[in-house]
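REQUEST
  id: r-88c1
  op: predict_structure
  target: Glutamine--fructose-6-phosphate aminotransferase [isomerizing]
  payload:
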Amino acid sequence: EKGGFEHFMLKEIFEQPRSIADSMRGRVRADEGHLRLGGLRDYVDRLAASERIVIVGCGTSWHAGLVAEYIFEELARIPVEVEYASEFRYRNPIIQERDIVIAISQSGETADTLAAIELAKSKGATIFGVCNVVGSSIARATHAGAYTHAGPEIGVASTKAFTAQVTVLTLMALTAAHKKGTLSETLFRQLLAEMEHIPALVDQVLQKAEKVKEIAYIFTYAKNFIYLGRGLNFPVALEGALKLKEISYIHAEGYPAAEMKHGPIALIDEDMPVVVIATKDSSYEKVVSNIQEVKARKGRVIAVVTEGDEQIRSMVDFVIEIPKVHDILMPLVSVIPLQLLSYYIAVMRGRNVDQPRNLAKSVTVE
Ligand code: F6R
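RESPONSE
  id: r-88c1
  status: 200
  body:
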């Protein structure tokens, strides 16, 4: 049942080339410039015409929402707000009939997310679901949506569901942008082609697992961790920190790299491992200076970098190389080494990786 892997979590991490491909199957044909989300068929015009999108979710699903915020705003130029479902539902939020609410949930049973949907529905919004479990309560409560096809996720810590969510949300954003005309046909086709290539790139990162394991060995007994990223890699930093907390019980925090100097920098000393996602994208130079700030205070830096990056390699303690990909698609690739790092650290600490203490796979109480 674990397919030869020691834990479901590791199996699910390694399944991602397939689960990402499955989430695109029948929806994307890059060579024909074809993109179709069947479940949104009757709602594409409404999505493209929307003046605001509100995304709700919890935990990892909320992180996928933060990634989607960047992508929708960049490609479709629609303002997006991302809310914790638990805050949204008790806040008397302003929701108008023209708003689209996207609810993200692997299980489709999260109580707060379901309640957020009911509230938004009562105010007349159109609700889309991005769920993994077919026929789940959330899937049934929405007007329309697109399933992630990640397959059953057994490990409590979400991995393949996250990348499947980001995949489907990216397809939604591309659908809206294409319909609206905010994206050139050339870039539209280029992004579709790059998306079709993502499973192969994720596979390349998975082949670095041994290297990540060596780093995990060195930091097994760290008491704290900081994760930094900018732009689309900021939510990835949050997700990396959450994974580590959940399964290894090490205190970890994710921050937008530039926020560090507004407080968290005080935590940095020679005992503080700092994971920096520092890929070659539009914020690269800024992240390089954030790394310098950490090194100047003797922090130990593990950097996730783009293949062939010599500049950062010469500055930091450890690097994990990942292949180059368009900025928009980066989280699908950059999150992989962070999943592996948390997994190996937890295993080395002897934790129950698939069923960490105090956590349940679906949170059906508020
Ligand atoms: C993270 C994790 C939780 C869930 C959250 C939402 O690894 O498992 O943070 O992401 O409880 O669950 P769903 O997506 O089922 O609504």
